[in-house]
Amino acid sequence: MSQCDPESTNLSTSTIIILAAGQGRRMKSDGPKAFEIVCGERIIDHQLRTICQTDIQQVIIVVSPQYRRDFSEIAKEYPQLVIKLAEQATPLGTGHAVQQALPLLSTQNAMVVLGDVPFIPVSVYENALLNLQTCHITTAIYENPDGLGRIIRDDKDKLLCIIEHKDCNSAQKTVREANTGIIAAKKDLLEKFLPKIQNNNQQQEYYLTDLISLFVNHEIEIQSNILTKSETWSVQGCNTIAELITVERQQQRARAESLIQSGVKIQDPNRFDCRGELICGKNVTIDINVIIEGQVIIGDHTTIGPSSILKNVTIGKNVNVKGFSHIESSRIEDHATIGPFAYCREQTHIHESAEIGCFVETKNTTLGKKSKAKHLSYIGNLTIGEQTNIGAGVIHCNYDGHTKHQSIIQNHVFLGANSSIIGPIHIENHATVAAGTTITKNVAKKSLAIARAKQVQINNWRPKQSRTQTTVEAPVTIEE
Ligand code: UD1
Ligand code: CA
Asked: Is 375 a catalytic residue?
């Protein structure tokens, strides 16, 4: 101890015990509360990712046997942690759950985290574990502590016990300091005192919180930390859908505010949803109702229009994404313009100063520098060169029912409106495709390809019902 930093020693010699074996009846959904999605990810993922940001490596998750396989799949996603699973066949209470973890506990310090609390900050882990002497509890003062375990102290403020809401008398119910559920303790104390917990309470459960009175009775000193008002929401548990939604809104607001602090102009922090990770350059503007999913990077001076969805996208500098655009698994280079109402699907690469306009869908496609597809097109499986114009209504017919075909359209090509390209096709530099053409053969450079049925004119034509005599004349081909 003397030579190494005592703080990091305590974190790296600690185990987080996550309790996730309850039935979650109040959530009224199938499966553990730890699998509920909040801000685009499962609660358990939020917890494990935060733990990865600390020096803690050891985690034990207490699970119901029926979900063991799901949890072991999740554990594989965190190779930097050593995650063990303890089973609790019947959820007899949080104290009983921690007891199931003890045989797997190999460090001197343990911190219990409830599996329905997604956003416990790193500081709370550190406060509980750094310099842990015996037992440390994290509490908070609530406006309305209904449902929570109350912190009972004597008139000298000494902690006496935690009484669960259902077991409180009316005086105890007026106490506003409540248990956040985060309790850290030395392994030897847990081993000694957990078996002493009884279940003679309203819910007939073995409450972890009963440890506190046992420790007090044995004159074991308890450290405690009362969270500040602004920290309190971050340890809120999600027992119900309503609580899940409230916690999500608070987290989204916090994310928006932190982006604003870093210089991003979020037009309305109440109408912004980041369900992943967003990295922004300077002078980025994000209009209302934008949804960010997965990993999104936005370069300097780029504007994202209202109601756009960006998922796993890298966007360059000075890009204008106009409203209602949906871009996923794509890359947009500097000075490009996208939308409004554009749909860029996976493997779209829009190069510098290129434009994708209204009702244009792209997939597995490269649009070269300064090329444009501005109206009503499907451009999938295409490699498009530079300064090429894709007219309104152009469709790349890439799918023949069995295979997706790839076509190439080179530089300075002009595709007239409403032309169909039946892939695989190669259209060479400076070629022109006349409007309304169906292209079935390759087009040579600098050539014009035109394939249209000749227009005919039938004079004196009437709908069948209104014909009195045979006045319809023979069709006349219009000369060009
Ligand atoms: C718990 C605390 C309460 C605290 C509140 C804070 C206890 C007895 N109560 O109450 O003092 O104020 O959290 O949010 O600790 N679980 C198991 N096995 C079980 C029972 C529960 O794994 O046998 C898991 C649940 O899946 C859940 C977590 O433990 O993830 C907490 O259980 P929950 O029923 O939500 O406790 P609360 O009533 O919220
Ligand atoms: Ca809870």
From this structure: yes
